[in-house]
Structure formats: C-alpha cells, structure tokens
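Re: beginner question about structure tokens

> Can someone show what the tokenized structure looks like for a real chain? I only ever see the sequence side.

Sure, here's an example I had lying around. Input first:
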Amino acid sequence: MRAVLTRVKSASVSIGGEAVGSIGQGFLILLGVGPNDTERESRYLAEKCLSLRIFEDENGKMNLGLDAVGGEVLVVSQFTLYGSCRRGRRPSFAEAADSALGNRLYEDFLRCCAALGFPPQHGRFGADMQVASVNDGPVTLLLDTEQLMDTPRRSK
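And the corresponding structure tokens:
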C-alpha cells in the first residue's frame, strides 16, 4: 500500500459539486492499494500514518501527533499512486490492485483509522472526486509498505 500524507490546515473532498468530507487541522491521506496488499498492510499503514509526530511543539520541532493537536483525518482513494511512467507518455496502472481488492482494503483502512481513535472523513472509492487542501508547512510524506515493512516484492 502507498500513502501520500500531507499535514493540512484544512482539506475537503467533493463529488459532483457536493462536499462529502471535510476536516480542519490534520492529515490528508491519499491511499493507493497494490495487487498483493492484504489487511496486514492496511493495519500497519494506518498505525504508521496516525502515529506520526509531524506537528510542531512550542519549540518549533516536529514532535506532536494528531492526538496532541486534536487533529482530524481525511482519506481519499488514489489508485494513480501505482501509476508507472516508465514507458511512453501515458501512465500504466497495471501495478494497481483491481477494484474489488482496492475497495475492500480502502474500507479496511478506514475501519483501522476509526479503531485507532480517528474516525476519518473520506471520499468514495472509484468516484470522480475533487480534493482541496490548505497544506501546512508544507509537510508531505510518502509511505510505502514495501519499504516500511521490509517485505520483498511478491510476484502477481
């Protein structure tokens, strides 16, 4: 699984002009699912994201977590995180999970966030969404369970 996590002052997601999720200060998490991902990766990534201490303390050091600042979470599915631009000019998305697995693990990630005490606002899997955010810092991190968990790539 891959996540692009951005520390935000605020963020929202709309579908067809209607706001379906919005947060104040917290994390905007764009989430991509790979074809070999499981609930194990989902739980690990949720725990890793939500435990990051990337808010500044009184000394200006990144030392505070979501809980310390009363932060919120907005999660948006983003299969394009598995896009490959190695060849040609049009990305290939062959490395992304199929929609059934992607949706199942996206929903699992949302449940994990809620179980960890941060019920997320969220978009809708597979929908054409418009995402707005006011980045804070900016602070943006890339997280990939293949790198974080030291798991070798598995073949399809």
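Each token stands for a local structural state, so reading them left to right follows the chain. The chain has four helices and eight strands.
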